[in-house]
Design brief:
The chain is of the alpha+beta class. Strands 2-3-1-4 form a four-stranded antiparallel sheet. Helix 1 runs antiparallel to helix 3. The protein is globular. It is about 40% helix and about 30% strand. It is built from three helices and four strands; from the N terminus they run βαββααβ.
């Protein structure tokens, strides 16, 4: 299992971010062909205390690297990327990971 991980730093306006993320961006992203599962986690703190560096994490699961590459070429993925850059381009870090406990 391969996943595309999006880590978001704290936005200036959390309410506006949440409205756009959950009302617009999430539904666009959920339509990407080949996406098997999408898990969104709101970070509520860190073990050292305080709010921590990140606000939100989204894990998008794909069957394989090839499935992820194919998905990223679709119109739906391009729409998701365009939307992402429009509201959170300066907040997001994207990574690709492989689950090792399969």
């Amino acid at each position: 299992m391969v996943k595309l991980i999006a880590l978001y730093k704290h936005p200036e306006n959390k309410e506006a971010f949440d409205d756009h993320y959950f009302g617009t961006h999430g539904p666009i992203t959920a339509k990407i062909p080949g996406l098997q599962k999408m898990v969104v986690t709101k970070v509520v703190g860190s073990p050292m205390g305080g709010e921590g560096k990140y606000y939100l994490m989204c894990e998008m699961f794909y069957e394989s690297h090839e499935a992820l590459k194919k998905a990223m070429k679709t119109d739906e993925a391009k729409a998701s990327g365009k939307d992402l850059m429009s509201f959170a381009g300066n907040l997001v870090t994207l990574m690709i990971g492989e689950e090792v406990n399969e």
